[in-house]
Amino acid sequence: MLESNHSAGPSSKLFSNRVFQAIIVSGLFLQIGIWIRNFAVLLFVMEQTNGDPFAVSMISVAEFAPIFIFSFIGGTFADRWNPKKTMVWCDILSALSVFAVLITLLIGTWQVIFFVTLISAILSQFSQPSGMKLFKLHLPEEQVQAGMSVYQTIFAVFMVLGPVIGTVTFQSFGIEISIMITGIAFLLSAGALTFLPKDYKMEGEERASTLWQEMKSGVKYVLNKKELSLLGLCFLAAGLGLGFIHPLSIFLVTEQLGLPKENLQWLFMVNGIGMVVGGAVVMIFAKTVAPQRLITIGMLVNALGLAVMGLSTTLWITLTAEFVNGLMLPCIQIGINTMILKKTEGAYIGRVNGILMPLFTGSMVLTMSMAGIVKEQFSLVATFELAAVLFIIGMFFILPLYNQKTEVKPEKLISQK
């Protein structure tokens, strides 16, 4: 039996951790593929449908509906399977599915483009919790929040670069080449993950229970943990709020600001700059600020930012609100992931993630499906203000944990044969 390295080394050794390096490199390739895919699909559908709100919102539904349907199942399997093999095969299958859709796109109708997002989203429900588990297995407890900060900063950097890369790629090469690049990026991500060390699993993971029994035990585990239950309610409210605004951001550009649709990339860029700065700040204070406090502050400030964005018809005000939202978003993301990792035993990481994420994404998909209708029946302003109120409600769910201290429980690892 191998003792975990959870007590070894200061946080300065984070970047020398082999697992951390592999996950970061893989994340870089995935972000390149995902952003090219997202903007290529968005701009392609906008062109094909002449900016139809329903068609645009259906892109988001294709991205997030599989999370609601497959997250719990994927999380349960992630607790049973080797995380390294799971992540590698998910990236390979994602690439193969992208190439299959490309072939169909070349010989069929344009609507097949929705399947690029749909299939990748399904496979990510098996891969993402495995990545979380690798953090739990291989990072010392005191490095978890700093590690999450770096990981989220990668996402933030691509909030700046991704829209530009995606837009330029689509405008320069068209939808077919954009989809091909996406598939290649997924394969490179799989290649990076092959450098991960041999899988380990938490002590106590040996079990002969059925899949259904493990799913039930996962639900019971979350219900018996106050922190996870409150986090789930926070997820629910935030998901409802984000679902209203996620597919409608492009209309802030075209309707509220009266600019061409391509200018959406600049809003994303400003938001991404804020995320980079916010992620760096959280990284600096990772050891001194409790994750539940990060979530509370982030939810409050994001609510105010959404309210301002919905009302603003001036470019600089909208950009300022986007920057502030980006600045605070890492607080929410890093706080949530850190809470899950610190408050969950290693054997339950996949299932806890698989239970909480559907609460968030299921509520998001629900309001995404309604977003176009709500916008037409009421207004874009009303939709954004409603989202802000839902963020405030989510903040109140997490407030009971605000002053709670974090307990550190070292865990042991067993070599995976």
UniProtKB/TrEMBL annotation:
Signal sequence segment: none
Membrane topology, from the record: Multi-pass membrane protein
GO molecular function, one term: transmembrane transporter activity
The Major facilitator superfamily (MFS) profile domain, residue ranges: 19-406
Subcellular location: Cell membrane
Segments passing through the bilayer: 20-45, 54-78, 98-123, 144-165, 177-196, 230-254, 266-285, 297-317, 323-341, 353-374, 380-402
Residue ranges the record marks as coiled coil: none
Keywords, in A-Z order: Cell membrane, Membrane, Transmembrane, Transmembrane helix, Transport
Main location: membrane
CDD domains: MFS_MefA_like (cd06173)
One GO cellular component, as annotated: plasma membrane
Pfam families listed in its UniProt record: MFS_1 (PF07690)
Protein name: MFS transporter
Source species: Peribacillus loiseleuriae
